[in-house]
Amino acid sequence: MSQVAKYRQVESFIKDRIINGTYPVGTRIMTEEELVDRFGFSRMTINKALNNLSNDGFIERKPGKGTYVCATRVSKPTDSARSFTEDMKAIGLVAGSKLISYEVIRAHDKPEIAQRLELSDDELLHYFIRLRTGNGKPIAISYNYISTKIVPAIDVKCLEQSFYAFLDSQGIEREYQGTSYTAKLPTAEQQELLEANDIALLCASHSTFTRREGKLVPFGYTLTCYNGNLYTYYSSI
Asked: At what angle do helices 6-19 and 43-55 cross, to 10 degrees?
């Protein structure tokens, strides 16, 4: 007998089919009655599974119309330079950003970041936190440090949109290096921002460089924590 809770079995059945493309975005999935017949579980168990999938952003339940796939898992190689906006477009969602906080801090307050960006203690950093969304649904939280040596001023309004587009408008070319990946449990604050419980975070970090007089100069460091139910990275080697 399976040790996995019954509602989890139903969740996995549906989630696996969303992830592998059997149920594309917009697909109407099996009704509660059909799932009851298939699994032999109670309607309460089926309803719990569907509610969990809805809360995690995989499906949307429309009273009187049925249940539809509204998101799928992003799967991308670890060496991909694809932006969050492009990730969302790939699964049929519109990317968005919500600025959580913004401040200018001294480099000595973040010695590890200062070392990465080759800054002295008295130099300044833009530090901002953004909630990244797909069709308004929270997907990830990004923590960003940008050197004022390369980007003296930031239009805070742009942080509600694409920061890369802002850098493009300033003529700042970019290269990314040192990407690393970790998995961790979310804090209570991160759970609240992502509107999701019982998840793990997939965290990706990288440094951003630009060229000055033919040399690569580091100017940014970003840590992005994704809802692990919605993101997968894989090795392309």
From this structure: 50
**Short-list 201, 219, 222, CA closest to 210:** 219
The identity of residue 227, as a single letter, is N
Angle at alpha carbon of residue 202, lines to 62 and 128, rounded to 5°:
90
Tell me the DSSP string of 10-70: HHHHHHHHHHTTSS-TT-B---HHHHHHHH---HHHHHHHHHHHHHTTSEEEETTTEEEE-
For residue range 144-187, what is the model confidence (pLDDT) as tens digits? Answer: 999 999 999 998 989 998 898 899 999 999 998 888 999 999 99
- Token digits for 3? 């040790």
Question: Which residues have C-beta within 8 Å of that of residue 22, sequence separation ≥ 6?
Answer: none
Q: How far apart are CA 2 and CA 49, in angstroms?
A: 17
pLDDT of residue 237: 55
Q: What is the pLDDT of residue 233?
A: 74
pLDDT per position as a tens digit, 185-228: 999 999 999 998 888 999 999 999 999 988 999 999 999 999 98
Q: Which residues pair with 98 in a beta bridge?
A: 131
Question: Helices in the chain by DSSP H: which ranges?
Answer: 6-19, 32-39, 43-55, 84-90, 111-116, 163-169, 188-194
Average pLDDT over residues 14-35: 85
Give the span between the Cα atoms of 110 and 96, in whole angstroms.
28
User: 70, exposed or middle or buried, with CB in 10 Å at 0-12, 13-18, 19+?
Assistant: buried
Q: What's the pTM value of the predicted model, to 2 decimals?
A: 0.70
